[in-house]
Amino acid sequence: MRTKLVVGNWKLNGSLAANRALLEAVVAGLPGTGKARFGVCVPAPYLAQAQHLLAGSMLEWGAQDVSRFAGGAYTGEVSAAMVAEFGSRLALVGHSERRSIFGDADAVVAEKFALAAAAGLVPILCVGESLAEREAGVTESVVARQLDAVLETSGVASLGRAVVAYEPVWAIGTGRTASAQQAQDVHGFIRGRIAARDREVAAGLPILYGGSVKAGNAGELFAMPDVDGGLIGGASLIAAEFIEICRAA
Ligand code: PEP
Predict the structure, then answer these.
(1) pTM
(2) How far apart are CA 29 and CA 8, in angstroms?
(3) 224 Cα: distance to centroid of ligand 1 (angstroms)
(4) Which of 102, 138, 171, 202 has the least CB density, counted as fewest CB within 10 Å?
(5) What is the predicted pLDDT for the residue at 154?
(6) Which atom of ligand 1 lies nearest, measured to the CA of 174?
(7) Does 187 participate in catalysis according to the annotation?
């Protein structure tokens, strides 16, 4: 059986003081049953603070992106190996904000995934369709294309130590959540596509749902058979809300 996983994505938010208050409250409120795992992806400058405050706690930490390059003359970039040096376990790659605002194409996301995995991080590969794509009925082909870019670069075995997050773009930060059945349908599709290459990897792969998850809808989403937890944006900045979502898992 797959262990549920809930990961917060702070995006471009935080300060040393606010982070400390948030992390201390979340750690104090997390359920300690060991039945689920929890993490936060923080802005890179706060990795050291996360390591300092979270080492030995139930809450794992990591970055929201890594460079497609291992090192060199790439001003402003943060490499996967640098992220790993701060005790990080997790790294998001291919978040829709990276894809749409910063132009991360499928091939770039695949390079980032490979470097995150090579650095010993657990890559969380974000996939998902825009509203126009959903309305055009091409959700599955969009998600398949995003998945296949990584499968072709890193191979299906690489998903044996990775996470996929299905995040419909129309549900991110909009307050509009996919219904539990809509999420299940796409999660089932993702697992099936991986299973066509390797059934064992597919069976063990955590597939998270992301897009306006709140305390009020987490339980219904997480109850679906192929929804293994959530990637949480806005609600991960509010300790009480994030703790409730973790409890739902
Ligand atoms: C996200 O940023 O990955 C996300 C799902 O955001 P929100 O929960 O705010 O929709």
Answers:
(1) 0.97
(2) 15
(3) 19
(4) 102
(5) 98
(6) 10
(7) no
